[in-house]
Design brief:
This protein is an alpha+beta fold and about 210 residues long. About 30% of the residues lie in helices and about 20% in strands. The protein has 5 helices and 9 strands. Helix 3 packs across helix 5. The radius of gyration is 16 Å and the shape is globular. It starts with 9 loop residues before the first helix and ends with a helix.
Length: about 210
């Protein structure tokens, strides 16, 4: 049987995911961040990429264990490392969705092009009813779906606060969101599922950027 990311040790799996996303041009330089719950299920902590580390060169020690409750660092594997600047967004996802086991954030040119075509105040991006949407557990004919859009702020906790506020009032139908001029954040019950969903959302973004 083929090995999936879920069969690997979590930090090694995240490093492998980062290298693959870097190869595809979705994590240029130090951009992007990845996390997985420690121990799976609704665990109270998650491993997340260290800030400022080139994503194509991550190893098992380039992650920090962070508390879901308050973003506090529980374990640091290298002295001086800090968790990703976007840790608060991952924390918001884990707080909102107890079944989320992994959360992945990438940057791509196609996403920036696609979301850049929306009206300035748009809070939703209508998705074309492509076959690949089934990977998001949407099993209806000709689905009419929107992906939530958030503004990009230098103050990242402000983005996280807006995500929590909006999703607490109305959870999204798809396990993904897009930040304007920035990139997508996608989550899943497992790391492999989240990885698959990133591929699907990026496929959709590429389609929208070209049509």
């Amino acid at each position: 049987m083929a090995t999936t990311f879920d069969d690997m040790e979590p930090r090694a799996a995240l490093a492998a995911v980062a290298r693959e996303f870097y190869r595809r041009g979705w994590m240029p330089g130090t951009a992007g961040n990845l996390s997985v719950r420690a121990g799976g299920g609704p665990a109270p902590a998650f491993w997340i990429t260290a800030s400022g580390v080139p994503k194509g060169q991550l190893d098992d020690d380039d992650f920090l264990l962070v508390n879901v409750a308050d973003d506090a660092v529980i374990e640091r594997l290298r002295a001086g490392q800090k968790p990703s600047a976007e840790t608060s967004i991952h924390r918001a996802v884990y707080r909102l969705f107890p079944d989320a086991g992994a959360c992945l954030h990438v940057h791509s040119v196609d996403t920036c092009i696609a979301v850049g075509r929306l009206p300035a105040k748009a809070q939703q991006m209508h998705l074309p009813p492509l076959e690949v949407i089934k990977a998001m557990d949407i099993w209806v004919e000709n689905p009419q779906l929107d992906m939530p859009v958030f503004d990009n702020w230098l103050d990242v906790p402000k983005i996280a606060g807006e995500i929590e506020q909006r999703f607490a009032a109305q959870p999204p139908r798809v396990s993904a969101l897009v930040i304007r001029d920035h990139g997508i954040t996608v989550w899943g019950a497992t790391l492999q599922q989240a990885f698959n969903r990133v591929e699907v959302v990026e496929f959709i973004m590429s389609y929208m950027a070209r049509t």
